[in-house]
Amino acid sequence: MTAGGARSAEKVGRRVSTCAFADAIARVSIAAHDAAVASLPDPERARLSSGQTVLASIVVRDGRGGGGENDRARVRVVALGAGTKFMTSSSIDSDARGVRVRDCHAEVLARRALKRFLYAQIDIARARRGTVADARSCVLERDARSNRWSIRPDVTFHMYTSSTPCGNATVKRWARGAKEVFDDALDESTPPPDAKTHEKPSFGSVHEGQLAFTYKRDPTALEDDGGEIRERGGGGGGDAAAGAAVHITGRLLSCSDKLAVWNCVGVQGALLLCENALSSPVYLASVTVGRKFNRAILRRALCCRMHRFRGTDAISAAEDGTAAEPRSRVFALNHPGTMCTAVPFDVGTYAPGEGANFDRADALVWWEGRDGGETRELIDARTGSRSFPRGDDDISGGLFARRRVTRT
Ligand SMILES: [Zn+2]
Ligand SMILES: [Zn+2]
């Protein structure tokens, strides 16, 4: 774990894991992060190896295993992001074309990386049409009904985040925490069977902001004390603690809120549901958290507070205007499994009298690509520009976008 040697923020003594699966997800994610950092050339590697950050990833659980008859399901990291910062309001204002990466919180970057992974997967699936020779790593299959691509039924997507998502999930009110108990009946490739059954929570404090969406606090914006949710003691660190739930002072939704939206409409974004792409939305099967986990609060924040979301039934031909058959593009509220892990991402200790130092503006994005091409980027989270690799411009995704355009 040399690449992570400078991380030094976690007290792990009292942390308990939910199960071996949660720990396996954390371990492969941290290893993938460290490998991505170690693969960078020197000035960048040195920068990324200092200070603290938050890591989030998307792990695929593939029921097909590695190929053998008695193979257990495999888990592999396909996307990850590390970062704690976002663009200031004034930088956002100056980005008239909307080409900068506004939000470099880890969960947002991991989801950005996942979208790139899915694009690469569609490329793989198209290239192998009619053959399965190189299909081991492909998570897609042809959906004959819609003539699009769908996720194979034995594949699920699992998020890991080294710290609980900022916003609602960090508001320790309106719920009681129960102590986690490690379930040692489950092996490393088996998620808890009841992971997706969430008890109906009580929403008796809606007017105090129990279900409210919140914004990432922009430290350069004027303080607005009209908000009702404010994390106590959240001053000073600004956005850096990735945990401040503050009302209205910024413009970017908290990660809890974004995750809540993704649990309604999927993590794939609108473009990947277009013609020739995915047949249905992609939902997270579970979320595993390192620091500051509270199951009841996490469930409220990520999914259960969206209980009024109606979803859509298959879009009818009349509405859609194109298909003769109703499409299977169905949205429905997803309740992911919620797990915690005691596997530490930050391995050292604080210097006496100091807290974690989250000052680093570099954010890392990595994804599993198609064929040895560049699949990582560094983004300067304050400006939203790509700082590595350097190309003709500094727009994240620029290289990727050009590649796609020239091919079609
Ligand atoms: Zn966040
Ligand atoms: Zn739920």
UniProtKB/TrEMBL annotation:
Residues 184-203 are annotated as: Disordered. GO terms for molecular function: double-stranded RNA adenosine deaminase activity; double-stranded RNA binding; tRNA-specific adenosine deaminase activity. GO terms for biological process: adenosine to inosine editing; RNA processing. Pfam families: A_deamin. PROSITE patterns: A_DEAMIN_EDITASE. GO terms for cellular component: cytoplasm; nucleolus. InterPro entries: A_deamin. Residues 79-408 form the A to I editase domain. It comes from the Eukaryota. Signal peptide: none annotated. This is Predicted protein. It comes from Micromonas pusilla (strain CCMP1545) (Picoplanktonic green alga). The lineage of its organism: Eukaryota, Viridiplantae, Chlorophyta, Mamiellophyceae, Mamiellales.
